[in-house]
Amino acid sequence: MAMDKVIEKKRLAIWQWGLIAAAIATTAWFLYGVLADASIRTYRVPAEQIIVSEVQFGAFEDLIPIRGTIQPLNSVFLDAVNGGAVEEVFVEEGSFVEAGQALLQLSNTNLRLDAARNDTSITEQMNFLNNISDGFETTTLNTARNLIDTEYRIVVLKRQKSRSALLVAKSLVSQEEYDALVDELSYQRKVLNNLLARQVLEEKIREDRLIQIATQKLKLEENLKVSQSSFESLLVRAPISGQLTSLPVDIGESKQRGERLGQIDVIDQYKIVAQIDEYYVTRVAADQDATFTLSGAEFNARVIKVYPEITEGTFEVDLIFEGLAPANVRRGQTLQLELVLGNPVESLLLPLGGFIQDTGGNWVFVVGANGEYATRRDVRVGRRNNRFVEVQEGLQQGDRVITSSYSQMEDMERIQLTQ
Protein backbone atom coordinates (compact mmCIF):
# COMPACT_ATOMS: atom_id res chain seq x y z
CA MET A 1 0.00 0.00 0.00
CA ALA A 2 1.48 3.27 -1.16
CA MET A 3 1.80 6.09 1.25
CA ASP A 4 0.29 9.61 0.53
CA LYS A 5 2.84 12.23 -0.57
CA VAL A 6 2.81 15.59 1.19
CA ILE A 7 2.43 18.38 -1.35
CA GLU A 8 4.43 21.47 -0.43
CA LYS A 9 2.71 24.89 -0.91
CA LYS A 10 4.49 27.02 -3.48
CA ARG A 11 5.56 30.49 -2.45
CA LEU A 12 4.83 33.53 -4.65
CA ALA A 13 7.67 35.06 -6.47
CA ILE A 14 8.98 38.43 -5.47
CA TRP A 15 7.77 40.00 -8.67
CA GLN A 16 4.28 38.70 -7.96
CA TRP A 17 4.33 40.32 -4.53
CA GLY A 18 5.37 43.56 -6.22
CA LEU A 19 2.42 43.43 -8.59
CA ILE A 20 0.02 42.87 -5.70
CA ALA A 21 1.50 45.76 -3.71
CA ALA A 22 1.26 48.07 -6.72
CA ALA A 23 -2.36 47.10 -7.27
CA ILE A 24 -3.22 47.74 -3.63
CA ALA A 25 -1.45 51.13 -3.67
CA THR A 26 -3.20 52.16 -6.88
CA THR A 27 -6.57 51.17 -5.46
CA ALA A 28 -5.87 53.06 -2.20
CA TRP A 29 -4.74 56.18 -4.07
CA PHE A 30 -7.84 56.03 -6.26
CA LEU A 31 -10.12 55.62 -3.25
CA TYR A 32 -8.33 58.48 -1.44
CA GLY A 33 -8.69 60.74 -4.48
CA VAL A 34 -12.37 59.90 -4.80
CA LEU A 35 -13.06 60.48 -1.11
CA ALA A 36 -10.91 63.66 -0.95
CA ASP A 37 -12.52 64.97 -4.11
CA ALA A 38 -15.95 64.34 -2.65
CA SER A 39 -15.06 66.33 0.50
CA ILE A 40 -14.27 69.53 -1.50
CA ARG A 41 -17.31 71.78 -1.93
CA THR A 42 -17.65 71.96 -5.68
CA TYR A 43 -20.05 73.98 -7.81
CA ARG A 44 -20.73 72.81 -11.33
CA VAL A 45 -21.52 75.38 -13.96
CA PRO A 46 -21.50 75.37 -17.79
CA ALA A 47 -18.42 77.14 -19.11
CA GLU A 48 -20.50 79.36 -21.39
CA GLN A 49 -22.35 80.85 -18.40
CA ILE A 50 -19.27 82.43 -16.83
CA ILE A 51 -16.68 84.98 -17.91
CA VAL A 52 -13.01 84.05 -17.68
CA SER A 53 -10.43 86.84 -17.97
CA GLU A 54 -6.65 86.72 -18.12
CA VAL A 55 -4.33 88.63 -15.79
CA GLN A 56 -2.20 90.97 -17.87
CA PHE A 57 0.62 93.44 -17.33
CA GLY A 58 0.01 96.97 -18.56
CA ALA A 59 -0.54 100.63 -17.76
CA PHE A 60 -3.18 101.15 -15.07
CA GLU A 61 -5.10 104.34 -15.78
CA ASP A 62 -6.27 105.67 -12.44
CA LEU A 63 -9.70 106.91 -13.47
CA ILE A 64 -13.27 106.38 -12.39
CA PRO A 65 -16.59 106.78 -14.24
CA ILE A 66 -18.89 109.46 -12.87
CA ARG A 67 -22.33 110.69 -13.84
CA GLY A 68 -23.00 114.44 -13.89
CA THR A 69 -25.77 116.83 -14.79
CA ILE A 70 -25.54 120.21 -16.48
CA GLN A 71 -26.31 123.12 -14.14
CA PRO A 72 -25.87 126.89 -14.54
CA LEU A 73 -22.49 128.08 -13.29
CA ASN A 74 -24.19 130.88 -11.36
CA SER A 75 -27.67 130.86 -9.88
CA VAL A 76 -29.42 133.39 -7.66
CA PHE A 77 -32.25 132.41 -5.35
CA LEU A 78 -35.10 134.80 -4.66
CA ASP A 79 -36.21 134.74 -1.02
CA ALA A 80 -38.88 136.79 0.74
CA VAL A 81 -36.99 139.43 2.76
CA ASN A 82 -40.25 140.21 4.52
CA GLY A 83 -43.31 138.04 4.39
CA GLY A 84 -46.53 139.07 2.71
CA ALA A 85 -49.35 138.06 0.42
CA VAL A 86 -48.71 137.80 -3.33
CA GLU A 87 -50.58 140.76 -4.78
CA GLU A 88 -49.43 140.72 -8.41
CA VAL A 89 -47.11 138.64 -10.64
CA PHE A 90 -45.47 140.53 -13.54
CA VAL A 91 -43.56 137.73 -15.36
CA GLU A 92 -44.05 134.07 -16.14
CA GLU A 93 -41.81 131.21 -15.03
CA GLY A 94 -39.18 130.44 -17.68
CA SER A 95 -39.00 134.02 -18.95
CA PHE A 96 -35.74 135.87 -19.51
CA VAL A 97 -35.44 138.88 -17.19
CA GLU A 98 -33.14 141.87 -16.87
CA ALA A 99 -31.45 143.05 -13.68
CA GLY A 100 -33.81 145.35 -11.76
CA GLN A 101 -36.94 144.13 -13.56
CA ALA A 102 -40.03 143.84 -11.32
CA LEU A 103 -41.09 140.21 -10.86
CA LEU A 104 -43.90 140.27 -8.30
CA GLN A 105 -45.54 142.50 -5.71
CA LEU A 106 -46.20 141.47 -2.12
CA SER A 107 -48.47 143.30 0.31
CA ASN A 108 -47.97 143.57 4.08
CA THR A 109 -50.11 146.05 6.05
CA ASN A 110 -48.16 145.66 9.28
CA LEU A 111 -44.89 146.31 7.49
CA ARG A 112 -46.36 149.43 5.87
CA LEU A 113 -47.44 150.78 9.29
CA ASP A 114 -44.08 149.94 10.87
CA ALA A 115 -42.26 151.74 8.06
CA ALA A 116 -44.45 154.84 8.56
CA ARG A 117 -43.82 154.83 12.34
CA ASN A 118 -40.09 154.40 11.83
CA ASP A 119 -40.02 157.29 9.36
CA THR A 120 -41.78 159.56 11.87
CA SER A 121 -39.53 158.54 14.76
CA ILE A 122 -36.33 158.94 12.76
CA THR A 123 -37.46 162.35 11.47
CA GLU A 124 -38.10 163.55 15.04
CA GLN A 125 -34.66 162.38 16.18
CA MET A 126 -33.02 164.09 13.20
CA ASN A 127 -34.79 167.35 14.07
CA PHE A 128 -33.67 167.05 17.69
CA LEU A 129 -30.04 166.60 16.65
CA ASN A 130 -30.31 169.55 14.27
CA ASN A 131 -31.62 171.70 17.12
CA ILE A 132 -28.61 170.71 19.24
CA SER A 133 -26.29 171.67 16.38
CA ASP A 134 -28.08 175.01 15.98
CA GLY A 135 -27.74 175.62 19.74
CA PHE A 136 -23.98 175.16 19.53
CA GLU A 137 -23.83 177.65 16.67
CA THR A 138 -25.91 180.16 18.67
CA THR A 139 -23.65 179.77 21.72
CA THR A 140 -20.58 180.31 19.54
CA LEU A 141 -22.05 183.49 18.14
CA ASN A 142 -23.05 184.79 21.61
CA THR A 143 -19.55 184.18 22.95
CA ALA A 144 -18.05 185.98 19.98
CA ARG A 145 -20.42 188.90 20.58
CA ASN A 146 -19.40 189.08 24.25
CA LEU A 147 -15.75 189.13 23.21
CA ILE A 148 -16.41 192.01 20.84
CA ASP A 149 -18.23 193.96 23.56
CA THR A 150 -15.48 193.36 26.11
CA GLU A 151 -12.69 194.26 23.72
CA TYR A 152 -14.55 197.46 22.79
CA ARG A 153 -15.06 198.32 26.46
CA ILE A 154 -11.34 197.84 27.13
CA VAL A 155 -10.44 200.19 24.26
CA VAL A 156 -12.78 202.86 25.64
CA LEU A 157 -11.47 202.48 29.18
CA LYS A 158 -7.87 202.70 28.03
CA ARG A 159 -8.64 205.94 26.23
CA GLN A 160 -10.46 207.35 29.25
CA LYS A 161 -7.62 206.34 31.56
CA SER A 162 -5.08 208.21 29.43
CA ARG A 163 -7.15 211.36 29.43
CA SER A 164 -7.99 211.16 33.14
CA ALA A 165 -4.31 210.79 34.03
CA LEU A 166 -3.63 214.28 32.59
CA LEU A 167 -6.68 215.75 34.28
CA VAL A 168 -5.78 214.27 37.67
CA ALA A 169 -2.39 216.03 37.48
CA LYS A 170 -4.22 219.35 36.97
CA SER A 171 -6.73 218.50 39.70
CA LEU A 172 -9.57 218.60 37.16
CA VAL A 173 -10.64 214.97 37.90
CA SER A 174 -10.69 213.47 41.34
CA GLN A 175 -8.36 210.67 42.25
CA GLU A 176 -11.36 208.52 43.10
CA GLU A 177 -12.76 208.75 39.57
CA TYR A 178 -9.38 207.90 38.12
CA ASP A 179 -9.00 204.85 40.40
CA ALA A 180 -12.48 203.68 39.37
CA LEU A 181 -11.39 203.78 35.69
CA VAL A 182 -8.26 201.79 36.49
CA ASP A 183 -10.26 199.16 38.39
CA GLU A 184 -12.84 198.91 35.61
CA LEU A 185 -10.09 198.43 32.99
CA SER A 186 -8.49 195.67 35.07
CA TYR A 187 -11.86 193.96 35.51
CA GLN A 188 -12.63 194.05 31.78
CA ARG A 189 -9.26 192.55 30.97
CA LYS A 190 -10.02 189.63 33.31
CA VAL A 191 -13.42 189.25 31.69
CA LEU A 192 -11.72 189.15 28.30
CA ASN A 193 -9.35 186.36 29.40
CA ASN A 194 -12.30 184.43 30.80
CA LEU A 195 -14.23 184.79 27.54
CA LEU A 196 -11.23 183.65 25.52
CA ALA A 197 -10.83 180.53 27.73
CA ARG A 198 -14.57 179.85 27.52
CA GLN A 199 -14.43 180.21 23.73
CA VAL A 200 -11.66 177.57 23.52
CA LEU A 201 -13.60 175.18 25.77
CA GLU A 202 -16.87 175.74 23.92
CA GLU A 203 -15.15 175.12 20.60
CA LYS A 204 -13.70 171.83 21.85
CA ILE A 205 -17.08 170.71 23.22
CA ARG A 206 -18.77 171.84 20.02
CA GLU A 207 -16.37 169.86 17.79
CA ASP A 208 -16.73 166.68 19.88
CA ARG A 209 -20.49 166.94 20.01
CA LEU A 210 -20.79 167.69 16.31
CA ILE A 211 -18.78 164.53 15.53
CA GLN A 212 -21.14 162.51 17.75
CA ILE A 213 -24.15 164.15 16.16
CA ALA A 214 -22.83 163.39 12.66
CA THR A 215 -22.34 159.72 13.64
CA GLN A 216 -25.84 159.53 15.08
CA LYS A 217 -27.26 161.13 11.95
CA LEU A 218 -25.51 158.54 9.76
CA LYS A 219 -27.00 155.73 11.85
CA LEU A 220 -30.43 157.31 11.67
CA GLU A 221 -30.11 157.71 7.91
CA GLU A 222 -29.07 154.04 7.63
CA ASN A 223 -32.05 153.04 9.76
CA LEU A 224 -34.28 155.14 7.54
CA LYS A 225 -32.88 153.40 4.44
CA VAL A 226 -33.42 149.99 6.06
CA SER A 227 -36.96 150.94 6.96
CA GLN A 228 -37.64 152.16 3.44
CA SER A 229 -35.88 149.17 1.83
CA SER A 230 -37.85 146.69 3.93
CA PHE A 231 -41.02 148.27 2.62
CA GLU A 232 -39.62 148.50 -0.90
CA SER A 233 -38.61 144.81 -0.69
CA LEU A 234 -42.27 143.94 -1.06
CA LEU A 235 -41.70 144.69 -4.75
CA VAL A 236 -39.44 141.79 -5.72
CA ARG A 237 -36.97 142.67 -8.50
CA ALA A 238 -34.49 140.56 -10.45
CA PRO A 239 -30.98 140.99 -8.93
CA ILE A 240 -29.28 139.77 -12.12
CA SER A 241 -30.10 139.17 -15.76
CA GLY A 242 -30.90 135.59 -16.71
CA GLN A 243 -33.64 133.01 -17.03
CA LEU A 244 -36.34 132.84 -14.37
CA THR A 245 -36.26 129.06 -14.06
CA SER A 246 -38.49 128.91 -10.98
CA LEU A 247 -41.32 131.13 -9.67
CA PRO A 248 -43.72 128.91 -7.66
CA VAL A 249 -46.16 131.62 -6.50
CA ASP A 250 -49.88 132.26 -6.92
CA ILE A 251 -51.81 135.50 -6.42
CA GLY A 252 -53.22 135.66 -2.90
CA GLU A 253 -50.72 133.13 -1.56
CA SER A 254 -49.05 134.09 1.72
CA LYS A 255 -45.25 133.91 1.88
CA GLN A 256 -43.30 133.85 5.14
CA ARG A 257 -40.08 135.75 5.83
CA GLY A 258 -37.15 133.89 4.22
CA GLU A 259 -39.36 131.61 2.13
CA ARG A 260 -38.09 130.73 -1.35
CA LEU A 261 -39.83 132.69 -4.12
CA GLY A 262 -37.88 131.62 -7.19
CA GLN A 263 -34.54 131.17 -8.93
CA ILE A 264 -32.70 133.00 -11.72
CA ASP A 265 -29.98 131.18 -13.69
CA VAL A 266 -27.18 132.75 -15.69
CA ILE A 267 -27.45 130.67 -18.85
CA ASP A 268 -24.34 131.76 -20.74
CA GLN A 269 -22.08 129.59 -18.53
CA TYR A 270 -22.64 126.07 -17.25
CA LYS A 271 -21.03 123.64 -14.82
CA ILE A 272 -21.30 119.89 -14.29
CA VAL A 273 -22.53 118.64 -10.92
CA ALA A 274 -21.53 115.01 -10.28
CA GLN A 275 -22.14 112.52 -7.47
CA ILE A 276 -19.18 110.24 -6.58
CA ASP A 277 -19.05 107.19 -4.33
CA GLU A 278 -17.65 107.95 -0.86
CA TYR A 279 -14.92 105.32 -1.48
CA TYR A 280 -13.05 107.99 -3.47
CA VAL A 281 -13.60 110.94 -1.11
CA THR A 282 -9.91 111.11 -0.11
CA ARG A 283 -8.67 110.82 -3.69
CA VAL A 284 -10.72 113.49 -5.43
CA ALA A 285 -9.37 117.04 -5.35
CA ALA A 286 -9.72 120.35 -7.19
CA ASP A 287 -8.01 120.75 -10.60
CA GLN A 288 -8.32 117.05 -11.51
CA ASP A 289 -9.27 116.49 -15.16
CA ALA A 290 -12.18 114.58 -16.64
CA THR A 291 -13.20 113.66 -20.18
CA PHE A 292 -16.53 112.85 -21.79
CA THR A 293 -17.93 112.21 -25.24
CA LEU A 294 -20.95 114.03 -26.61
CA SER A 295 -22.34 113.79 -30.14
CA GLY A 296 -19.23 111.90 -31.24
CA ALA A 297 -16.78 114.54 -30.01
CA GLU A 298 -14.55 114.41 -26.92
CA PHE A 299 -14.53 117.26 -24.42
CA ASN A 300 -12.57 118.07 -21.29
CA ALA A 301 -13.66 119.29 -17.87
CA ARG A 302 -11.90 120.25 -14.62
CA VAL A 303 -12.91 119.86 -10.98
CA ILE A 304 -13.34 123.29 -9.35
CA LYS A 305 -14.93 122.34 -6.05
CA VAL A 306 -15.27 119.25 -3.86
CA TYR A 307 -18.04 119.21 -1.27
CA PRO A 308 -16.90 117.13 1.75
CA GLU A 309 -20.41 116.32 3.00
CA ILE A 310 -21.39 112.70 2.37
CA THR A 311 -25.07 111.99 1.76
CA GLU A 312 -26.39 108.46 1.24
CA GLY A 313 -22.93 107.14 0.40
CA THR A 314 -21.96 109.82 -2.14
CA PHE A 315 -20.37 113.25 -2.18
CA GLU A 316 -20.71 116.06 -4.73
CA VAL A 317 -18.20 117.84 -6.99
CA ASP A 318 -18.49 120.75 -9.42
CA LEU A 319 -16.66 120.72 -12.76
CA ILE A 320 -16.34 123.35 -15.50
CA PHE A 321 -15.66 122.88 -19.19
CA GLU A 322 -12.04 123.23 -20.27
CA GLY A 323 -11.25 124.48 -23.75
CA LEU A 324 -14.03 124.15 -26.29
CA ALA A 325 -17.40 123.67 -24.56
CA PRO A 326 -20.14 121.58 -26.19
CA ALA A 327 -22.85 123.51 -27.96
CA ASN A 328 -26.58 123.35 -27.29
CA VAL A 329 -26.33 121.83 -23.81
CA ARG A 330 -29.38 122.17 -21.60
CA ARG A 331 -29.90 122.51 -17.87
CA GLY A 332 -30.47 119.07 -16.33
CA GLN A 333 -28.80 117.20 -19.23
CA THR A 334 -26.87 114.08 -18.09
CA LEU A 335 -23.24 113.36 -19.02
CA GLN A 336 -21.07 110.27 -18.51
CA LEU A 337 -17.50 111.28 -17.60
CA GLU A 338 -14.21 109.64 -16.71
CA LEU A 339 -12.40 111.40 -13.86
CA VAL A 340 -8.60 111.00 -13.84
CA LEU A 341 -7.30 110.47 -10.28
CA GLY A 342 -3.59 109.98 -11.10
CA ASN A 343 -0.94 109.22 -13.73
CA PRO A 344 -0.80 105.77 -15.44
CA VAL A 345 1.31 103.13 -13.60
CA GLU A 346 2.61 99.83 -14.99
CA SER A 347 1.17 96.92 -12.95
CA LEU A 348 -0.71 93.60 -13.06
CA LEU A 349 -4.28 94.16 -14.24
CA LEU A 350 -7.40 92.05 -13.86
CA PRO A 351 -10.50 93.00 -15.87
CA LEU A 352 -13.25 94.26 -13.61
CA GLY A 353 -16.37 92.15 -13.20
CA GLY A 354 -19.18 91.13 -10.88
CA PHE A 355 -16.80 89.17 -8.64
CA ILE A 356 -15.48 92.38 -7.06
CA GLN A 357 -18.84 93.09 -5.38
CA ASP A 358 -19.09 89.52 -4.05
CA THR A 359 -15.54 89.14 -2.69
CA GLY A 360 -14.44 92.72 -2.16
CA GLY A 361 -11.30 91.78 -4.10
CA ASN A 362 -10.09 89.47 -1.29
CA TRP A 363 -10.25 86.19 -3.23
CA VAL A 364 -10.98 84.83 -6.72
CA PHE A 365 -11.49 81.55 -8.57
CA VAL A 366 -8.45 80.75 -10.74
CA VAL A 367 -8.95 78.35 -13.67
CA GLY A 368 -6.44 75.48 -13.82
CA ALA A 369 -4.25 74.64 -16.79
CA ASN A 370 -6.62 71.91 -18.02
CA GLY A 371 -9.59 74.27 -17.95
CA GLU A 372 -11.78 71.80 -16.06
CA TYR A 373 -11.65 73.29 -12.58
CA ALA A 374 -11.23 76.70 -10.96
CA THR A 375 -9.95 76.83 -7.39
CA ARG A 376 -10.33 79.50 -4.78
CA ARG A 377 -7.28 81.70 -4.13
CA ASP A 378 -6.70 84.60 -1.75
CA VAL A 379 -5.50 87.79 -3.45
CA ARG A 380 -4.89 91.43 -2.61
CA VAL A 381 -5.99 94.19 -4.97
CA GLY A 382 -5.37 97.94 -5.03
CA ARG A 383 -6.89 100.68 -7.10
CA ARG A 384 -9.64 100.13 -9.61
CA ASN A 385 -11.15 101.98 -12.55
CA ASN A 386 -14.09 101.27 -14.79
CA ARG A 387 -12.19 98.54 -16.68
CA PHE A 388 -9.50 97.01 -14.46
CA VAL A 389 -8.52 96.35 -10.87
CA GLU A 390 -4.87 96.54 -9.85
CA VAL A 391 -3.47 93.18 -8.58
CA GLN A 392 -0.90 93.45 -5.79
CA GLU A 393 -0.60 89.85 -4.52
CA GLY A 394 -1.84 86.33 -5.27
CA LEU A 395 -1.88 86.29 -9.09
CA GLN A 396 0.64 86.23 -11.90
CA GLN A 397 0.60 87.37 -15.47
CA GLY A 398 -1.27 84.85 -17.61
CA ASP A 399 -3.47 83.46 -14.81
CA ARG A 400 -7.06 82.91 -15.92
CA VAL A 401 -9.66 84.14 -13.44
CA ILE A 402 -13.45 83.87 -13.34
CA THR A 403 -14.52 87.55 -13.29
CA SER A 404 -18.29 87.15 -13.54
CA SER A 405 -20.53 87.22 -10.46
CA TYR A 406 -19.89 84.76 -7.62
CA SER A 407 -23.39 85.13 -6.15
CA GLN A 408 -24.01 81.32 -6.36
CA MET A 409 -20.42 80.30 -5.58
CA GLU A 410 -19.40 82.24 -2.47
CA ASP A 411 -19.41 79.16 -0.17
CA MET A 412 -17.65 76.89 -2.69
CA GLU A 413 -13.98 75.90 -2.78
CA ARG A 414 -13.86 74.78 -6.38
CA ILE A 415 -15.74 75.38 -9.61
CA GLN A 416 -16.13 72.58 -12.15
CA LEU A 417 -16.57 73.88 -15.68
CA THR A 418 -18.82 71.59 -17.67
CA GLN A 419 -19.45 71.53 -21.40
Helices and strands in order, then pairings?
Layout: H1 14-39, E1 42-46, E2 52-54, E3 56-60, E4 63-79, E5 84-89, E6 96-97, E7 102-107, H2 109-169, H3 175-232, E8 235-237, E9 242-246, E10 254-255, E11 260-277, E12 289-294, E13 297-311, E14 314-322, E15 334-340, E16 345-351, H4 355-359, E17 363-367, E18 373-378, E19 380-384, E20 388-393, E21 400-402, E22 414-418
Helix pairs in contact: 2-3
Pfam families: RND-MFP_C
Main location: other
Protein name: Efflux transporter periplasmic adaptor subunit
Question: What would you note in describing this structure?
Answer:
Strand 12 (289-294) and strand 13 (297-311) form a beta hairpin. The chain is of the alpha+beta class and 419 residues long. A six-stranded mixed beta sheet has the order 1-22-18-17-21-2, with no helix packed on it. It contains four helices and 22 strands. The two termini are 77 Å apart. The model is unreliable at 32-36 (pLDDT under 50). The protein has helices at residues 14-39, 109-169, 175-232, 355-359, and strands at residues 42-46, 52-54, 56-60, 63-79, 84-89, 96-97, 102-107, 235-237, 242-246, 254-255, 260-277, 289-294, 297-311, 314-322, 334-340, 345-351, 363-367, 373-378, 380-384, 388-393, 400-402, 414-418. It has three domains: 42-60 and 345-418, conserved putative lor/sdh protein from methanococcus maripaludis s2 fold (Beta Barrel), CATH 2.40.420; 65-93 and 255-340, Elongation Factor Tu (Ef-tu), domain 3 (Beta Barrel); 110-231.
